[in-house]
User: What shape does this take?
Amino acid sequence: MFTGIVTDIGEIKNLAPTAQGQLHRLRIACDYDQTTIADGASIACNGVCLTVVASGADGGKTWFDVDAAAETLRLTTAKDWRAGTRLNLERALKIGDELSGHIVAGHVDGIAPIVARENLPDMAKFELRAPPDLAKFIAAKGSVTLDGVSLTVNTAVDDVFSVLIIPHTLHVTTLRDWKTGSQVNLEVDLMARYAARLTETK
Assistant: This one.
């Protein structure tokens, strides 16, 4: 589990397709302390929960390797990642950690394209289009996770919703690089999903 609070920005150093293209081995450089990264640990990369299979240090930077399987490549923007792609990173939640965002599983539900960007003084407003089957889980003042970042929904009309990004978030995440046409990983709020399921079963 995660909280959607980004703690580092990583960069893909190498990407090697394996197993007839059904698996991608990624090496990601970051500023985490390598001694705290255990094989088998979960790290959210742009909102995608991936398992560390190896780690080390090189040139003053920590690196860790993860595998992106066929389902991950099919459902997320990981299929478009390349060497040099920058990723929002978050370590797994530990018991006792402060829950500053909201409960995030790291299981991406779909991809949302950005349909508009409005630059404001020190901030940015984005409008995104949710996949039709996910729009019902998104409501004004509710929570969404976009590329691993916990955000509050500003408005929601049909399948288009907006988020307002404050200066701090623009500074410490890759959201400052978003533009109209960008594709981002979307995870809807778990509570919204459960509430909808309970309503359906009544």
